[in-house]
Design goal:
about 55 residues, mainly beta, about 0% helix, single chain, about 25% strand
Length: about 55
């Protein structure tokens, strides 16, 4: 009667929003906290640097 149920956190699908992706980190058994990683897309383009012309 005193069986302990093993609690398992469900796998959450990736979240996609405007320029943001959120993924669940690896589930580690026995730990309470499950973390998430957030990946942001670049909001501006980076141009290669060129030296300015001499006057």
């Amino acid at each position: 009667m005193s069986e302990k149920k093993q609690f398992c956190r469900p796998k959450v699908p990736d979240g996609h929003a405007f320029r943001v992706t959120t993924r669940q980190k690896e589930i580690v058994p026995g730990k309470f906290f499950v973390g998430y990683e957030t990946t942001w897309e670049a909001q501006q383009k980076v141009a290669p640097y060129t030296t300015p012309k001499k006057p």
